[in-house]
Amino acid sequence: MNDFRKITPGGRPFTRIYLNVMLWFVGRAIQAAARQDPAVKREFAQLPEGFTFTLTAAPDGPSMVVSKDETGRVTYLGRRPANHPLNVKLTLKHMEGLFLLFTFRESTATATARDRLYVEGSLAEACAVVRILDIVQVYLLPKPVARLAVKRYPRWSFKRHAWDRTLVLLRTVLGV
Amino acid sequence: MTLPDRFEFFCPAKTASGFKALEHLPGDLEALNARRPLIITDPSSTREGRVQQIAKAFRTSGLTLGVYDGIGPDAGMDTVKDLFDLYLDRGFDAILALGSGPTVDLAKVVNIAVSGQPEDLNRCQGVDRIDHPLNPLVFIPAGSGTGTECAGEASLGDRTYCSAHLIPDLVTIDPRMIGDPAPMRIVSGAMAALTHAAEAYVCPRPHPFAESYAQLAIGFVMAHLLDVVRAVMAPKGKMARLADGFSLKKDRLALVNAACMAGYVYANTPRGLAARLGQAAGRGGEVDPALAMGILLPCALEYHAHRQGRDLSRILRPMVGLERYCATPAGQRFAAAMGSLRHLGNELFVLTETAVPRTLEDAGLTRNALEAVAQSVAAQDPDEDLARACRTILEHAFDGRPLTA
Fold it and tell me: Disulfide check for B265: which of A25, B200, B203, B339 has CB 3.0–4.6 Å away?
């Protein structure tokens, strides 16, 4: 049996660190956008009180958890979905899928079309989450990169592009 | 087409194809309740980095892989026995067959043994003798196979197994797995796929599901084969090859998909005359059976159309697309389809510098051998006219003469 060998594939520590940072940043940006952006406010307003969702990768990839409390306030709850009752769970089938998403080589829509993303929970609520993620990515990324990350780059007013973006970025960094 | 009164189509394989398809494999294996896969492949897969790519795709999955890359051209029952012991001793629960043709056949035979008793290898020979589901089997194409890898067939030496249980559970087609193209292997695989698909498409017993798969397989081969061979054969510098690399990968991916679809069709429809004659012609070993099928295909179709009076004009549609099909008058469609097939054969002959034969004579068959080939096919069928049909088709394919009314 000279031709036999066993392979224990290693992890991807640097990818994991990168994704953890990105998810932390995006989670806080959702929190910030929910306070600043009218479209994100509207999307969250239609979601039930106590609504909690997570974006993660199977089997134990990096995660982010975001929740809307009884007062309508949206909060980034960290990266441990197991600690929270979830309404919607968006799971990429593998960490590479999440990496493609957060290196902006695939949009959420493309990931879904390529069968990389599955949803546990209400589909209508999951679609609202995807729309929120798209808006947040437009806030966070420069136009050429954001065009790769979202299905359709939106036509926004100058005020929304400049002023709101500045505030969202500021709120994201400060966590307020 | 009209809906037939009754038909069956059995295709238990899930096909995952395209960009990063390999990364889905751990999740798909889990769905098959498999946690310890064994990769069975040939040494070239390790040499060319394919095994390493699979290992990369399994990072973060938490699974451990076994790799056996010693499948050589002379692998037989001794190798099956070694792999049987290895599989059971190390507690594997699934096989990933990486490669094409003989490697996949051997993996299927190992799967028969490990899913039951070693005695099953004798008991299950023949048609439909496997009476229980087998352990999960994943097929990862590494080049242009003939498509029969996706069908419920396996042969090893003089043993042949035929059962729906042999169809792989999962077929993962990833561009990273498709190795350096050897033109003759590409053409050979594509010709076998084209023959199986075309003969299923015009099968006398209409089969809507098989026809849909066959239509796509024919379209992919006709649209991409010449581009692949042209890109592979053209003398180019490193930079030009690099620039061509992306489109070449896409074209090759289309051919591998076509082969898999032809395999699903092959598993669900009776063999056509060109496929049976091609296999019989290749039995001696002097002629590549797949290339012989490609040569025989237009003659077999012409026989059905002109001598049996069947209307096969619709075969033009998958070959040239709907627009050109509609632009061709009904009376010219069959001739145009045969023209396309012969053009493909002749172009391949030129592009490969005569390596791909246009006629059975080019392929190295002698005229005296034709009768034996015809007899070997006719002997398997009670139809009295079959021997005459085989002889006519073989003679026309030998000379490269179109068969007219």
Answer: B200
